[in-house]
Structure formats: C-alpha cells, structure tokens
Amino acid sequence: MTIPPDIVYGGDTSADLAVSEGDNATLSCRATGRPTPRVSWRREDGEPILIRASSAEIFKITNSETK
Fold it and tell me: C or N: which end of the chain has fewer Cβ atoms within 10 Å?
C-alpha cells in the first residue's frame, strides 16, 4: 500500500529561514508516508544543503553555506 507523504512537524523551518554568517541554524522536519519520505533541504539559489537526517543543527554558518 502506498501512503502519500505528510509533513507532521516542520518546526520553524516550514518556510524561509534567514541566517547571518556566524550564526547557528536548526533545520527540523518529520514526515510520514509509505514508502518512507526522504527529507531534503535547499538554499534559496536551489543548491542542496547536504544533511543526511531529518533534523540537524548547523553551527557557525560560513560564507560557503550562505553564498
């Protein structure tokens, strides 16, 4: 049986998140469905943010991450 993805928790990151260089950022998302949904994150310019879990805390945002 296939069950469409459903985001059950997105924390404060369900929309845009602006972070200044040197600040910390927390990304969190929990989704249900079958098959199990994969969560991915992208920057405003479309480049992926490489996180292999549904949530992560990124410490000290650098210029390479904020382009």
Answer: N
Residue by residue, pLDDT tens for the chain (67 residues) are 999 999 887 565 456 778 888 888 787 888 899 999 888 888 888 888 887 666 666 766 766 544 4
Helix ranges (H only) for the chain are 63-66
Which residues are CB-contacts of 39 (< 8 A; sequence separation ≥ 6)?
29, 31, 53, 54
The pTM of the whole model exceeds 0.85: no
DSSP assigned state of 58: E
The alpha carbon dihedral of 23, 43, 40, 15 has a sign of positive
Residue 44 tokens, joined: 């405003």
